[in-house]
Write a structure and sequence with these properties.
75% of the residues lie in helices and 0% in strands. It has 254 residues and is mostly helical.
Amino acid sequence: MNEQMIPLKISSMEAEIQEMVHQRTLQQYTAGPVISRARLFFLLIPEFGGMHWSDEIRTSAKTVAIIYAALHAHDLIEEHGTATKEQQLTVLAGDFYSGIYYQLLANLDNIDLIRELASAVVTVSEQRASFHTAANGSLADFDRSIHSIESSLIEAFYRFYGYERYSDLSRLVLVYERYAKELQLMQAGGTTPILRKLDHHFPEPAAKEAWLTGKLEALEREISEAARACALPYAADHYLHQLIPHKISIKLSN
């Protein structure tokens, strides 16, 4: 597979998912489903690596992407409340996406897969809820929660179809992407449940920024090691490097 085929395949799956969840009113008043291209890359990476791939597996991969879109929609409401029409419709959008993935799972008629993904959804939902509670665990607990939220569903997909060789790499890259976004939001003056949770550990913004920067630098090293262990084809390895924004601004506050 050449380098041009990977982004084309990712865009193709993204378009298929957008079509599956399209609803005119929701499209008019909400931003639509958020589908991370990094997640799509890791859902498709077994195909890029030449492993067994079928229509059923592709449908399962799209289902996982839609689950993440549903969770993201609900995240937006937890962050901003439900005061406006657009925000209320975002709640409905999340529910709508959930209905789509339930239907897809039912059509697959694979009870074992449904159980695997349902268990992962419960895990992710529990960890997401932890960012909205008053209880404060350790930084290690916090980091484990981020890892679980970002990768549990894809890891469940890998386990079911025998793609575990990609688990470590996908988890590290997706966690990197999350921390990079949180750092960018912080530097822009924004806040999120994750950043507010970190406030309990780092009352001073500079300390919080330094911690996030350190996490990104450590993750870059781990990603390099995990990528070598996966022995990715050249095209996939080249695209992976585009997912790691080395040029991201990680300057510490003065």
